[in-house]
Design brief:
globular; about 80% helix; about 500 residues; mainly alpha
Length: about 500
């Protein structure tokens, strides 16, 4: 197709960083597959062994803990790359500042949640130890900051090991094991805490080996304050983006019972499997964009956005079709009652495609125009909140998913327009080959819906992935695109 030639032509002018993007993308995509291999069994076993009500309670409590961690990270998951790129101080000292800032704020949030456990458990405390779940905030902060620092050095494999191997497999194995003990009532929460503690250990140890002990470092309130102020726009954008992806659970938790939240949570987690393809490129893309923009090379940054955006869509579209077309069967794996969420799953998977467009553009916008990016994020969250309050009481989980889809789509369009103006270069990564391959795969999958449920899944999931992949490999990928697969 025409865009293959264009891709090849642009490849010749592509920055040398494309090879680093490909290496980082391969590493993180492998991590996505490893995480999928562990996370999917956890969802199936958790739903089967604990039921929708316990799963819904787990979803709400962990959402609040992750919110506290997101708030107190203060944007450093992405902002630390900028701090390390601009600072003339030893990298170990910059990392120590980031850890000190995040942990001080995290300690305050932890104490608040322990004092007010109703924030995590709106239906009340069942066991005296449940408020201690708040301590997980500190483990998340340690892991996030250390992994962000290692990403600046392109040490992406550590994140894969900690977040895609250790964390999900510990969660799955511990959660499954506790389901057959007297600790079953709190088994999911205990497994969650242990898995994140293990991930924190796996993140901190390599960071110490990489950067060493920050000798000569002294705590400075003024330095921490300055770092916090610099990262406020990014922190706000991260927080709003996180809230956008959790507002649906919050509203459902207030307007519906734990069982409805549990049904929605399973559909959301299945859809998130597609979204994690997009997140696979974040650790390598953030430091490369911050470096290019700081050096005054906007064309290079735009090329990175176009390349990564295309890679993300080329992986995400077939996964969305493969999971969405046989949605009833996929959700039925978790139990017969979960199959009713097929419409919710379809809407959430479509929302992940909208999120892919917005998120890749945002990765550059947060460095080029952080305040404008924050304004877009706030506007998208406000739109989602209004739509959720209108649609959730009427349509339940489907209303929450529809509100999320509209908000993400509006924010994605706004971010791409703003980024194109900020960089003075095209940031469009959609190509006709994606639409053509997607249409063929959709037609095949839709025809397979005539089969019985089991045969439909067996035919649709591998068939859609293979058909889409063959079309893209033959007509959609240029030489630079194929670098992701180790070919030049």
């Amino acid at each position: 197709m025409a865009e293959t030639g264009e891709a090849s032509q642009s490849a010749g002018n592509a920055p040398s960083g494309a090879a680093a993007l490909a290496r980082g993308g391969r590493t993180n995509f492998a991590g996505f597959l490893l995480r999928l291999a562990a996370r999917f069994p956890f969802l199936v076993l958790g739903a089967r062994l604990y039921g929708a009500e316990d799963l819904g309670r787990f979803a709400y409590a962990t959402m609040v803990v992750e919110f506290a961690a997101q708030l107190t990270t203060l944007g450093l998951k992405r902002g630390l790359s900028g701090e390390m790129a601009r600072s003339g101080r030893p990298e170990a000292h910059v990392v120590a500042d980031a850890l000190a800032l995040a942990l001080l704020l995290g300690l305050a949030a932890t104490l608040l949640l322990i004092a007010l456990p109703v924030l995590m458990f709106p239906d009340g405390i069942r066991h005296a130890a449940e408020p201690l779940l708040a301590l997980v905030v500190l483990a998340i902060l340690l892991s996030d900051v250390c992994l962000a620092a290692l990403a600046f050095r392109h040490r992406i494999g550590v994140a894969v090991q900690a977040r895609s191997v250790i964390e999900p497999w510990v969660l799955t194995l511990v959660g499954t094991g506790l389901a057959f003990t007297f600790l079953k009532p709190g088994g999911l929460l205990i497994a969650f805490a242990i898995s994140l503690a293990a991930a924190a250990i796996a993140s901190v140890a390599p960071a110490i080996r990489q950067f060493g002990v920050p000798r000569g470092w002294r705590l400075s309130a003024s330095r921490l304050w300055a770092m916090g102020v610099r990262n406020l726009p990014l922190a706000g954008a991260d927080l709003v983006d996180w809230a956008t992806r959790r507002l649906d659970i919050f509203v459902l938790g207030r307007f519906a019972g734990p069982e409805v939240v549990g049904l929605y949570f399973v559909a959301q987690q299945v859809a998130t499997l597609a979204g994690r393809i997009r997140m696979s490129f974040d650790p390598i893309l953030a430091p490369m964009l911050s470096t290019a923009l700081k050096a005054g090379r906007p064309d290079e940054a735009a090329a990175h956005v176009r390349q990564v955006g295309f890679w993300v869509l080329a992986f995400q579209i077939p996964v969305v079709l493969a999971l969405g077309l046989p949605g009833e069967g996929v959700l039925g794996l978790f139990g017969p009652e979960f199959a009713a969420g097929a419409l919710v799953l379809a809407l959430l998977l479509t929302a992940e495609l909208a999120a892919a467009n917005g998120s890749v553009a945002e990765m550059a916008l947060i460095y080029a125009r952080p305040k404008l990016n924050l304004a877009v994020a706030v506007g998208g969250l406000a739109l989602q909140a209004v739509l959720s309050l209108v649609l959730v009481p009427l349509h339940g989980g489907a209303g929450a998913a529809a509100a999320l889809l509209v908000a993400l789509l509006a924010a994605a369009i706004a971010r791409q327009i703003l980024l194109r103006r900020a960089l003075g270069a095209s940031v469009t990564f959609w190509r006709w080959s994606l639409l053509a391959a997607g249409a063929l795969a959709f037609g095949y999958g839709y025809a397979a819906r005539a089969l019985p449920e089991l045969w439909q899944m067996l035919a649709t999931i591998p068939g859609v992935l293979i058909l889409f992949g063959l079309v893209m490999w033959r007509w959609g990928f240029g030489p630079e695109d194929r670098a992701l697969f180790g070919r030049r």
